[in-house]
Specification:
56% of the residues lie in helices and 2% in strands. The protein has helices at 6-14, 17-38, 46-50, 52-58, 61-64, 72-78, 98-108, 112-115, 118-138, 143-162, 188-195, 203-207, 218-230, 233-238, 255-281, 296-299, 316-322, and strands at 300-302, 311-313. α2 crosses α15 (255-281) and α9 runs antiparallel to α10 (143-162). Bound molecules: zinc ion (ZN).
Length: 324
């Protein structure tokens, strides 16, 4: 959940980022992703749940696309995908898509990368996964399509989980914002980011019995989740004195642990609902006949009699048989 602005650069200069922050921030993403998949055991394809380790692995990748790991150009594009400072919209409705948002910002003299684009990242990655699932429905044995479903799901997991961290949703993202709008960089953000990964819980136990339902329209669903998360901003600041330092354990009986458990539930349920929505919506996607026609990616099959590694095109008749 690392919120990646200049803070990461400061930490890097201080020499404390690489050895510590990545690990515990990552543990929270890993755990929340496993909880979501544990909640979906019978609702999505078996290969998808079997790929839990890969999805959880990829759920950390979006932070690697920012400093201190990523080059500058990638960081500049990627970092705003991880937050959404709602106050800066001044009460205006959230535009329907990424470029409508950019137009809105231009008209208002606002900087899109200052506000952040997190809800759009969640919507767009859910829809990328939806398309990959549609390909899986058409070519269910294709290993490349299965692999990309897992990778896309991991990337979606990261943004969905960031969206449930209240300090990713506000100008008060690392201490109460100063009058000039700048953050005091109090250090509370890192303490909160660390909480999920400190919970000693089993993903299957956490998710046991959850009724996961698909979402309707994605952006309103993401904005509803943001609204819910923003109701907890004041609570986070009330907890500030009780938040353990980055290297300190979490008191399982304290209010900070209660907050962490509630947020883990929120992240797991939101992500599980996004996965289920992508799977169900993939039924509605029609892949045109020309799509991937004549390429190995679309129609390859492993011939059991062929030498190892050799791939063969399916026959035209088989392609038609496999068409929806
Ligand atoms: Zn992030």
């Amino acid at each position: 959940m690392a919120r990646c602005r200049n803070l990461t650069l400061v930490l890097m200069v201080l020499g404390i980022f690489a050895t510590e922050a990545a690990a515990w921030h990552g543990r929270g993403h890993d755990l929340a992703t496993r909880v979501a998949l544990a909640a979906l055991r019978n609702d999505v394809p078996a290969f998808f749940v079997a790929g839990t380790d890969t999805i959880a692995h990829c759920s950390l990748d979006a932070d690697a696309f920012t400093r201190p790991i990523a080059p500058a150009e990638l960081h500049d594009q990627e970092a705003p995908e991880h937050y959404f400072d709602m106050e800066l919209l001044g009460g205006s409705p959230v535009p329907a898509n990424r470029y409508a948002f950019i137009d809105f910002c231009a008209a208002k003299g606002l900087k899109p990368n200052k506000i952040g684009l997190l809800p759009y990242a969640v919507v767009e990655w859910t829809q990328r996964l939806t398309v990959a699932f549609a390909e899986h429905r058409r070519w269910p044995e294709n290993p490349a399509i299965r692999a990309k479903c897992l990778v896309y799901a991991g990337l979606l997991a990261h943004y969905a989980e960031d969206l449930t961290q209240p300090l990713h949703l506000t100008i008060h993202w690392d201490g109460r914002a100063r009058a000039d709008g700048n953050s005091p960089r109090s250090g509370i953000h890192n303490k909160v980011d660390a909480l999920l990964g400190k919970l000693p819980v089993d993903p299957g136990s956490v998710a046991k019995g959850w009724p996961i339902k698909p979402l309707g329209e994605l952006l309103p669903a993401a904005l509803a989740e943001i609204a819910q998360g923003r109701t907890l901003i004041d609570h986070v600041y009330e907890l500030e004195a009780q938040l353990p330092g980055m290297d300190e354990p979490l008191d399982a009986s304290g209010k900070a642990a209660d907050f962490a458990r509630e947020r883990l539930d929120a992240a797991g349920k939101f992500l599980a609902s996004l996965y289920l929505t992508a799977w169900l919506d993939s039924q509605k996607i029609t892949l045109p006949p020309w799509y991937r026609q004549g390429t190995l990616a679309g129609q390859l099959s492993q011939d059991a009699n062929a030498p190892a590694g050799k791939v063969l095109y399916r026959s035209q008749s088989l392609q038609k048989t496999n068409s929806p």
